[in-house]
Design goal:
By secondary structure, the protein is mostly beta strands. Helix content is 15%, strand content 39%. The protein is built from two helices and seven strands. The termini are far apart. The structure holds 8-OXO-2'-deoxyguanosine-5'-triphosphate and magnesium ion (MG) (2 copies). One magnesium ion binds next to strand 4.
């Protein structure tokens, strides 16, 4: 019979900018396994800004500020072990303390976090992010 289509969920992810670099981690989660992605997770009973700060803290230990909405994309994951659908909210933020170092707090979900230059991004990128890069998007303000 027909396969039931999954209900859309809301993801909130963060372009965490530090000087000319941004934070990426290689995923260990089933969706997008072994691809580089932004910190982020599922929206709960909270604002986009609170979700961004909470997920970044839970996943990296970092404290962020100047949190603002950037854009939203629709992502249907058909080719994953478990098909899923996310409306993904992209936020932007900076570190409260630029000297603070990311920790890999959820090693079951991520191989580790590092800072990357926009012109020298690691490969492969998680495809919702890849799609934005290919469209010419740039997360740095004033570009
Ligand atoms: P949670 O239990 O902490 O709430 O969830 P999570 O385990 O941290 O969720 P996640 O997979 O990291 O993020 C939720 C979804 O957001 C993800 O499955 C698909 C969507 N998503 C994108 N792009 C990105 C991205 O660059 N990074 C992250 N983390 N999620 C993304 O569409
Ligand atoms: Mg999370
Ligand atoms: Mg996450």
């Amino acid at each position: 019979g027909p396969v039931p289509s999954p209900e859309p969920k809301v993801g909130v992810v963060v372009f965490l900018l530090r000087f000319q670099t941004l934070l990426l981690g290689k995923r260990r989660s089933s969706i997008g396994h072994s691809t580089f992605a932004l910190p982020g997770g599922h929206l709960e009973f909270e604002s986009f800004e609170d979700c961004a700060a909470r997920e970044v803290k839970e996943e990296t230990g970092l404290d962020i500020e100047k949190i603002e909405f950037v854009t939203v994309t629709n992502n249907v994951f058909l080719d994953e072990p478990k098909p899923s659908h996310y409306v993904t909210i992209f936020m932007r933020a900076v570190l409260k303390d630029p000297q603070q170092v990311p920790q890999n707090i959820e090693p079951d979900k991520c191989d580790g976090w590092d800072w990357y230059e926009w012109d020298n991004l690691p490969k492969p990128l998680f495809w919702p992010l890849e799609k934005m890069v290919l469209s010419g998007f740039n997360p740095f303000p004033g570009v």
